[in-house]
TrEMBL record:
<dbReference type="GO" id="GO:0046872">
    <property type="term" value="F:metal ion binding"/>
</dbReference>
<dbReference type="GO" id="GO:0006298">
    <property type="term" value="P:mismatch repair"/>
</dbReference>
<dbReference type="InterPro" id="IPR011257">
    <property type="entry name" value="DNA_glycosylase"/>
</dbReference>
<dbReference type="GO" id="GO:0035485">
    <property type="term" value="F:adenine/guanine mispair binding"/>
</dbReference>
<dbReference type="GO" id="GO:0034039">
    <property type="term" value="F:8-oxo-7,8-dihydroguanine DNA N-glycosylase activity"/>
</dbReference>
<dbReference type="InterPro" id="IPR023170">
    <property type="entry name" value="HhH_base_excis_C"/>
</dbReference>
<dbReference type="InterPro" id="IPR003265">
    <property type="entry name" value="HhH-GPD_domain"/>
</dbReference>
<dbReference type="GO" id="GO:0051536">
    <property type="term" value="F:iron-sulfur cluster binding"/>
</dbReference>
<comment type="similarity">
    <text>Belongs to the Nth/MutY family.</text>
</comment>
<keyword id="KW-0408">Iron</keyword>
<keyword id="KW-0227">DNA damage</keyword>
<keyword id="KW-0411">Iron-sulfur</keyword>
<dbReference type="InterPro" id="IPR044298">
    <property type="entry name" value="MIG/MutY"/>
</dbReference>
<dbReference type="GO" id="GO:0006284">
    <property type="term" value="P:base-excision repair"/>
</dbReference>
<dbReference type="GO" id="GO:0032357">
    <property type="term" value="F:oxidized purine DNA binding"/>
</dbReference>
<protein>
    <submittedName>
        <fullName>HhH-GPD family protein</fullName>
    </submittedName>
</protein>
<keyword id="KW-0234">DNA repair</keyword>
Amino acid sequence: MTLANAAASASVISKFRREVWAYWKKHGRHDLPWRKTKDPYKIIVSEVMLQQTQVHRVIGKYGEFLERFPNVRALARAELSDVLKMWSGLGYNRRAKYLKDAARHIVDENGGRVPKAVILLQKLPGVGPYTASAVRVFAFNLPDILIETNVRAVFIHEFFNDKKKVSDAQITPLAHEAAEGQDPRLWHAALMDYGVHIKKFHQNPTRKSAHHGMQTPFDGSLRQVRGAVLKLLHMGSHGDLALAKKLSFEQSYIHKALEGLKKDGLVTNDRGVWQIS
């Protein structure tokens, strides 16, 4: 299916839906742990974890995290150092702080209940437009649309296969048409799984997205240094010299990582000694 514009006939949309649902029926990842719950807290944990992290890396951590922090109040009252320890291995550690801060906000401002309204969800630290919509869809089964890498792959492959630099603005009308009348939770799970399939067998159509960007390599990156610094500080506080001796990175790079971690509120410095916040 290829369209010259961002509109589709009812028959085209109907055929598209049948393809998506057929794939879901045979190959859908029904066993993903966050698809077995409608608990808004557990959904928001999964959505923050899945930001910039592959599914297979999240699965194990998701269960461990929820075992340690089973509800929003448990996370809200936890020490940041404990949250960061449980987060270790997922990367982008500022997300752990955002999640803890979001839990605190939910307890303080919403009586411990995850809100449904977009405007309230987007007030939570670390929750942007996509995550807010994902919580509405997967926790509350409310009608909305989700556009992320796998969903982009589906729409670009099916409707814009001969185009380049396809924007989300072009995809959005089609996403609304296709989602109309469908169960929001199941439809978007099916779309995402179909997108995973398409990316494997059709040279990843998201490369044609106007929003596509290649992730920089982890080895030698500032992300790697930040992770190594946090791992060491989990074992106890360290001064600059001790960190430089124990870490095999240039001192200037370690300093840059420390300053970034401090800015993100993950570490503090007390008279030359670094520790987890």
